[in-house]
Design goal:
mainly alpha, 4 helices, rod-shaped
Length: about 290
């Protein structure tokens, strides 16, 4: 029975060692997954922070765009008011002549359309071109005539300056809008990277939890094996102690029997050796 228990204890020792090794291996894996998860979470946080910076810059550029649009529209409205005043002046002072200019412009548009769509001989086309030029010169002379009026000239110059300023602002708006779009695209890219990094972090965390739970299971099995070993040690120790005591009792009985034989020899007057006398003393027969 004792040998059977010793064999079972040996098997339990091997099982305990196996559970301990698996537990340590799983704990090492869990630690590795935890480090990967933490690294990915930090990376995600950095992507989000970078995305926020691009968002702030985009919003700032968009605000500047909106402010400039308001200013540009104001300038264009002021220019439109002045040009309306100029047109009103032309109507009031141009009369029939002004209506004639409009008719000339229509004729010019008609002739230019014919030039582009119809086929002419070289001579006829040259005549048509000359006629268009003469009519345009007449329109230009009419415009110059109006612009020679000091008040009108100042208004036109003021309106052109407003349009120029509005045009410059529009160019600024275009640049700022492009900058805003650039930061918007960078923001979107950062959020995309953050999402991907977060998914990887979640996957690493799931592996960490699985490894940790498996390690906990192996640890419980290791503890149970250790308890089983202690139980085996108690039983085996008790059996060995009992076996030792039994052996001692058996040896004592044999010594007692031998001592009694020597004692009978002593009583019979036979000569004893020193060892015989010591044996009798140990057995308390003398």
């Amino acid at each position: 029975m004792l040998n059977e228990l010793i064999d079972k204890r040996r098997s339990s020792v091997a099982s305990s060692e196996d559970h301990k090794n698996k537990r340590n291996e799983l704990n090492a894996q869990a630690s590795q997954y935890a480090r990967e998860r933490n690294t990915l979470n930090n990376q995600t946080r950095e992507f989000v922070e970078e995305a926020q910076k691009h968002k702030d810059q985009r919003d700032q550029f968009n605000k500047e765009v909106q402010d400039l649009k308001v200013r540009r529209n104001q300038l264009n409205e002021e220019a439109n008011v002045i040009f309306t005043e100029v047109e009103s002046f032309k109507k009031d002072h141009g009369g029939v002549k002004n209506r004639g200019i409009k008719e000339l412009q229509k004729q010019i548009e008609h002739l230019e359309f014919r030039q582009q769509t119809e086929v002419f001989s070289t001579e006829k086309e040259r005549e048509l071109i000359d006629k268009i030029k003469q009519m345009k010169d007449q329109v230009k002379e009419h415009e110059i005539e109006f612009e020679q009026n000091k008040e009108i000239r100042e208004k036109i110059l003021a309106a052109k300056d407003l349009r120029k300023e509005a045009s410059d602002i529009h160019d600024q708006i275009t640049v700022l809008a492009e900058d805003a779009q650039k930061h918007h695209d960078l923001m979107v890219e950062c959020y995309r990277k953050a999402d991907a990094s977060r998914e990887e972090a979640d996957a690493a965390h799931r592996k960490f939890v699985q490894a940790q739970e498996a390690a906990d299971t192996e640890h419980k099995l290791f503890i149970e094996s250790q308890k089983e070993l202690r139980d085996y040690d108690k039983v085996i120790g008790g059996l060995r102690k009992k076996s030792k005591k039994t052996k001692q009792n058996k040896e004592q009985k044999e010594v007692r029997k031998e001592a009694e034989q020597i004692f009978n020899m002593f009583r019979a007057g036979e000569k004893l050796t020193t060892e015989d006398i010591l044996l009798l003393q140990r057995s308390k027969l003398i």
